[in-house]
Amino acid sequence: DSGVTQTPKHLITATGQRVTLRCSPRSGDLSVYWYQQSLDQGLQFLIQYYNGEERAKGNILERFSAQQFPDLHSELNLSSLELGDSALYFCASSASRDRGGEQYFGPGTRLTVT
Amino acid sequence: ELKVEQNPLFLSMQEGKNYTIYCNYSTTSDRLYWYRQDPGKSLESLFVLLSNGAVKQEGRLMASLDTKARLSTLHITAAVHDLSATYFCAVGGGSNYKLTFGKGTLLTVNP
Fold it and tell me: Which of A92, A96, A99 is closest, CB to CB, to B92?
């Protein structure tokens, strides 16, 4: 158990809908990262937040957005969902005291768009 | 753009044998990570390599980093069935903490 929690574990929804994925980092970690894992794209970095502020952006679609709240939990919002958005979405956290810090991954949310 | 290549992508081994997984990356980086993923599960951190020549060992797994060659290796010694999983290398680059992952190596250890 990494100490990172994600809810829900599974989500099934229809095309065109909007969902919110939630992540709570390890106690004391200020950085949260979102990754998408799919069969065709592999593991891709989406976005990073540090202490409430966006720090880095990766291959995140405009239909997707994220934020980190004052209590450091983070939410990833996916809207106008398409079949191709079906994937495993991971959140990771790190202490960010130095750039070599490990990223600890949560259990993931499996999103199925039908 | 940083690219990370792993090979082989599929590896079927017999128990007791040794093998090496290779991870090449395209641009200078000072951070390399190895993760393990079991089917349908999360990623488990195995090794963090932060300097040229770094070598780390845990059980039957040993990882090394050559930053000049932009190459990391994950060596498996005397494989056992419990090592069956997908292994990813990930490289950090730039001033942020973003990780770029390889495609992963699916390792199957057969009795």
Answer: A99
